């Protein structure tokens, strides 16, 4: 009489090793995301699951069901590994419907720790550079631009960049745009590139058409970027930036009040300049977007 062939099942030692590795991957993904409370709770739960899964084998109980227990343990291991990888790559807040809070930063915020900040914010808009107020023409890189953008990339934080412009004509605006393109060096910010228009001294006496010419020239000369926009305060949007050509771009408004509601036609609202965020030792601008932004 021929014996039935047994289905190949991993040995107990190999299953134990697989489950241990999967538990470590899952725990490290939570720790990397700085979900510390969740990390501790899940680590305890995983330990209990491991004990429940392995004790029947150790004490040789449920001998008839060992094959089933092994299969269940393997499936648990696969689930933990898959969940760990998903958590590592996932921006959980931006994935669902709702409003999302971000910051915009420059050298004035000093050295920031985005590993801590990401516990409280969903995105970052970084100043790439600015035109010097001393002469109105010299273009300068924000000294913390590379540090900030590299942190965002390493931590998978969605980011955008902006440039503080003093351009008074299309030629100067193009020079500023070319500078931004060179500093991005092929990197494409998910939130886009913005021109910051708000300087009364250099641009306050320009006509609405001239300001629109500056904005359009800057944004049209930004290379390899699918999202482009304009930042200004409520007064400028109401009285100066009224040219219909600007409707073709993302509009980012600064307006500080308790009513955190995006007005029609605007995609980003800067609602505070006195925010407090972990990892940042200064007050910081707070901004709001919705999932419709994407």
UniProtKB/TrEMBL annotation:
GO terms for molecular function: lysozyme activity. SUPFAM superfamilies: (Trans)glycosidases (SSF51445). InterPro entries: GH, Glyco_hydro_25. Keywords: Hydrolase, Membrane, Transmembrane, Transmembrane helix. GO terms for biological process: carbohydrate catabolic process; cell wall macromolecule catabolic process; peptidoglycan catabolic process. The chain crosses the membrane at residues 12-32, 38-59, 71-88. Gene3D superfamilies: Glycosidases (3.20.20.80). Belongs to the glycosyl hydrolase 25 family. This is Glycoside hydrolase family 25 protein.
């Amino acid at each position: 009489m021929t014996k039935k062939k047994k289905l190949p099942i991993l040995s107990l030692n190999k299953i134990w090793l697989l489950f241990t590795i999967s538990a470590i991957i899952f725990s490290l993904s939570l720790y990397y995301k700085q979900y510390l409370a969740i990390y501790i709770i899940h680590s305890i739960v995983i330990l209990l699951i491991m004990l429940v899964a392995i004790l029947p084998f150790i004490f040789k109980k449920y001998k008839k069901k060992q094959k089933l227990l092994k299969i269940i343990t393997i499936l648990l291991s696969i689930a933990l590994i898959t969940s760990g990888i998903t958590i590592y790559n996932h921006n959980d807040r931006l994935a669902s419907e709702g409003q999302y809070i971000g910051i915009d930063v420059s050298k004035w915020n000093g050295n920031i720790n985005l590993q801590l900040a990401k516990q409280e914010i969903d995105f970052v808009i970084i100043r790439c550079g600015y035109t010097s107020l001393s002469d109105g023409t010299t273009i300068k890189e924000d000294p913390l631009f590379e540090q900030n953008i590299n942190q965002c990339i390493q931590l998978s934080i969605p980011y955008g960049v902006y440039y503080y412009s003093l351009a008074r004509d299309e030629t100067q605006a193009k020079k500023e745009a070319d500078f931004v393109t060179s500093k991005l060096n092929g990197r494409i910010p998910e939130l886009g590139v913005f021109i910051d228009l708000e300087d009364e001294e250099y641009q306050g006496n320009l006509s609405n058409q001239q300001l629109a010419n500056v904005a359009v020239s800057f944004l049209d000369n930004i290379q390899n970027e699918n999202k482009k926009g304009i930042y200004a305060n409520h007064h400028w949007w109401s009285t100066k930036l009224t040219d219909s050509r600007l409707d073709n771009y993302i509009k980012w408004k600064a307006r500080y009040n308790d009513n955190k509601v995006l007005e029609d036609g605007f995609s980003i609202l800067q609602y505070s300049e006195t925010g407090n965020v972990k990892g940042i030792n200064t007050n910081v601008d707070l901004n709001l977007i919705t999932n419709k932004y994407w």
